[in-house]
Amino acid sequence: MNAHAPVTQELNTNVSTTFDVLAWEIELAGARCIFLDTLIGELMPTVPPEKRERLIQGMHAVDLLAQHLTSLSAFSRRLSEVVPAESGVEVSKALADITLGDLADRMRTAFGGEEEAVDDRAEAGDLDLF
Amino acid sequence: MNFDTRGLKIMVVENDRTVLEIIQLRLEVAGFHSAMARTGRSAIEALANFRPAALVIEMNLPDMSGLDVLEALNSSVDRCAVPTLIMAKQLGQGDLKLAISLGARDCIAKPFSGADILTRVSRLLGKSAPIQGRSVVHV
Predict the structure, then answer these.
(1) Contacts of B109 (CB under 8 A, 6+ apart)
(2) Are A97 and A3 in contact (CB under 8 A)?
(3) Which of A15, A40, A73, A78 is most deeply packed, by most CB within 10 A?
(4) In Å, what is the CA distance from A101 to each residue of A6, A105, A118?
(5) What ipTM was predicted for this assembly?
(6) How do residues A73-111 score in pLDDT, each as one tens digit?
(7) For B7, which residue in chain A has the nearest alpha carbon?
(8) How far apart are CA A111 and CA A93, in angstroms?
(9) SS3 for A2?
(10) CB of B131 within 8 Å of any CB in chain A?
(11) What's the rounded Cα separation, in Å, for the pair A67 and A109?
């Protein structure tokens, strides 16, 4: 997961798509925060009363982070709708700076590059039943 | 939570891994169970064996269109009307009409937020939207 994505070839896209891809990824980060927030909430009854204040502080921080991310996602999504379609950008070097291999691969695919199977779940046709 | 989502199974068909995980997480936090497929073929195979409470499907799949999937499902004798939400970046009027004729009840345009999709799934099930994020804090 932490493999540095190699710069294999130029990957040209437009700025609108770039903002769109960013919006989806930030939205996913926000969804993960909301999931984490819910998990912490579920664990609350199992925590000794004297420790709960600290946990509530943590929940509050995660909640703020989720709101922060979903707001940034909305901002990026809106920008993707208003930037001129003809504005191009080359993203391969920027992608190479992403140290999370799965994230870099998802974004590369979204920009029109080839999908690399990072793990089993990345296989096309993957079915995950309950 | 405005209604009990426990045990309700939602089938999501989407090739984009990011979008798929967003929907999966949002549904899980809201209390739904979810089944995920990334191709039309795997969705058809899965839907032959179980009937979800709702189907959320992308129109542009790598191996076939979402319309093809709905068509295949409609030809199945076991197919009872599964409330269906279609997702698309762009959808022509003709395709929309065809989707509706094949059982789609709603359409959500991409891009959308995680909150949007949860609202639409809840509406699809004839319920108001579950509350977002943390539902209960036990202190």
Answers:
(1) B88, B89, B90, B91
(2) no
(3) A73
(4) 10, 6, 7
(5) 0.82
(6) 999 999 999 999 788 999 999 999 999 999 999 999 999
(7) A130
(8) 13
(9) coil
(10) no
(11) 27
* CB A14, CB A87: distance < 8 Å: yes
**Nearest to residue B109, comparing CAs of B129, B130, B85, B131?**
B85
Helical (H) or strand (E) element with B35: strand B33-37
Kindly list the residues from chain B whose CB atom is less than 8 angstroms away from the CB atom of residue A106: 17-18
Give the model confidence (pLDDT) of B51-87 as tens digits: 899 999 999 999 999 999 999 988 875 556 789 999 9
Q: What is the DSSP string of B41-109?
A: HHHHHHHTT---SEEEEESB-SSSBHHHHHHHHHHSTT-----EEEEES---HHHHHHHHHTTEEEEEE
Largest Cα–Cα distance of chain A, in whole Å?
Answer: 58
Residue of B8 and A116 predicted with greater confidence: B8
- Using CA atoms, how far apart are residues A111 and A98, in angstroms rounded to an integer? 14
Would the CB atoms of A34 and B137 count as touching at under 8 Å? no
CA distance A54 to chain B (A): 12
Residues 69-128 of A with CB under 8 A from B: 70, 73-74, 77, 80, 106, 109-110, 121-122, 124-128
Q: Which candidate, B52, B50, B57, B34, places its Cα nearest to that of A130?
A: B34
- Residues in chain B, pLDDT under 50: 1, 129-139
Type of residue numbered A47: V
Residue of B13, B17, B76, B18 lying closest to B40 (CA atoms): B13
